[in-house]
Amino acid sequence: MKQDVVRNDLLAEELSNRLFFRLYQCANMLHKTGTKALDPHGTTTQQWAILGALSDHRAAGGIPVGALAAHLMVSRQNLLGVLSRLEAQGLVARTVDARDSRSRRISLTDHGRATWSAMQGNIRSYYAAALRGFSKSDLIHALHYMDKLRDNFRSVDAIQGGESEA
Predict the structure, then answer these.
(1) How far, CA to CA in Å, does 127 sit from each of 30, 33, 55, 145, 164?
(2) Which CATH number is correct for 2-159, 1.10.10.10, 3.30.390.10, 1.10.3210.10, 1.10.579.10?
(3) Which tens digit of pLDDT belongs to each residue from 120-164?
(4) Do 65 and 103 meet the contact criterion of CB atoms below 8 Å apart?
(5) I want to staple 112 with a disulfide (CB 3.0 to 4.6 A). Which of 108, 137, 156, 159 is the partner?
(6) Crossing angle for the helix pair 110-130 and 45-55, to the nearest 10 degrees
(7) Which residues, other chains included, contact 68 with Cβ-Cβ below 8 Å and sequence gap of 6+?
(8) Is residue 118 classed as helix, strand or coil in its secondary structure?
(9) For the chain, which residues make up each domain, given as ranges?
(10) What is the value of pTM for the model shown?
């Protein structure tokens, strides 16, 4: 009986290790292949995520830097470097928040909106290739489990004293 418990614990540990290593591999491949898919637009996966977030109708009129960092689950420091590059390319603009002069709002420029629109064909092709063989049911289940994992990571981050925005 005790051997079965030990064996089950070892199996769970091995499965956990394999799962987290697979997530690591997938994240690395997402960055590598996603950036390559958007080479014609000179866009990285980090920039893609920011442009996508800013293209959402809820970001109309701009979004505070802290809110964007929280949405993307990155630190403000990491976000600011990417925003600077996007701003230098003329894709985003930073403006002073009318309600708080210490705060900055980020929004897409006309050039940023045009670039986002031009990227859509590449993004659709990338999704089709990366998700080949996945049914709609598979995608729903994957989203469900990724949401659970993300929520657990948030809890771990809070316990560890992580940044409030991530």
Answers:
(1) 11, 11, 18, 19, 31
(2) 1.10.10.10
(3) 999 999 999 999 999 999 999 999 999 999 999 999 999 998 764
(4) yes
(5) 108
(6) 120
(7) 50, 53, 54, 79, 106
(8) helix
(9) 2-159
(10) 0.86
Angle between helices 45-55 and 65-72 in degrees, nearest 10: 120
Q: What's the residue count for the chain?
A: 166
3-state helix, strand, coil in the chain (%, to 5): 70, 10, 20
Print burial letters for 58-78: b (CB count within 10 Å at least 16), e (below 16): ebeebbebebbbbbbebeeee
Rounded CA separation 77/60 (Å): 23
d(CA 48, CA 42): 10
The values of phi and psi at residue 109, to 5°, are -85, 175
Q: Which residue in 73, 75, 29 sits closest to 49, CA to CA?
A: 73
Paired tokens of 1:
């009986």
